[in-house]
Automatic annotation (TrEMBL):
Source domain of life: Bacteria
One Pfam short name: Pro_isomerase
Keywords for the protein's UniProt record, in alphabetical order: Isomerase, Rotamase
Listed GO biological process terms: protein folding
Source organism of this protein record: Commensalibacter papalotli (ex Servin-Garciduenas et al. 2014)
Bilayer-crossing regions: none
Keyword Transmembrane helix: no
EC identifiers of the protein: 5.2.1.8
GO molecular function, one term: peptidyl-prolyl cis-trans isomerase activity
Protein name as it appears in the record: Peptidyl-prolyl cis-trans isomerase
Occurrences of domain PPIase cyclophilin-type (ranges): 15-158
């Protein structure tokens, strides 16, 4: 089955979110999210960094934003033909463009300053109202005390 016919289904405490992956934009990142979801990697992981009007970041089991999976980091797949807008899923990374691993973020709003600098890997197609209810962090860095978690992330077919 091709990556294009698969969706990620993310169970949050407020409801189910469906994410359509974009292997046409980022084949390596799309495959990585599928692989990790199939392994149960994202289950019970926190949204450790959540900034009002910007994004919710998760995908680090430690909740520190400093770790990822045991898989090697990915080469950058910067998105040039799409723009970061509400509901887009991007791959988080350090200052090193080739450091994306397991962490991702979901946009609450448009953020065109990320265009061409980060990888778009998918888009929320259902349940954005549940993403909007993720607990926000404090301060400019958006670190969340007692963060909301991904209860379960699974792969489903369209």
């Amino acid at each position: 089955m091709s990556t294009e016919s698969k969706l990620l289904q993310m169970e949050l405490k407020h409801g189910i979110v469906k994410i359509k992956l974009r292997p046409d934009l980022a084949p390596l990142a799309a495959e990585r999210l599928l692989t990790l979801a199939e392994q149960g990697f994202y289950d019970n992981t926190p949204f450790h960094r959540v900034i009002e009007g910007f994004m919710a970041q998760g995908g680090d089991p430690s909740g520190t934003g400093m770790q990822g999976s045991d898989l090697p980091d990915l080469k950058a797949e910067f998105t040039k033909d799409e723009s970061f807008h509400r509901g887009m899923i991007g791959m988080a990374r350090t200052m090193d463009p080739d450091s994306a691993n397991s962490q991702f973020f979901i946009m609450f709003d448009d953020a065109h300053h990320l265009d061409g600098q980060y990888t778009i890997v998918g888009q929320v197609i259902e349940g954005m109202e549940f993403v909007d209810q993720i607990k926000r962090g404090a301060g400019a860095n958006g670190i969340v005390n007692h963060p909301d978690q991904i209860i379960k992330m699974s792969v489903v077919t369209e």
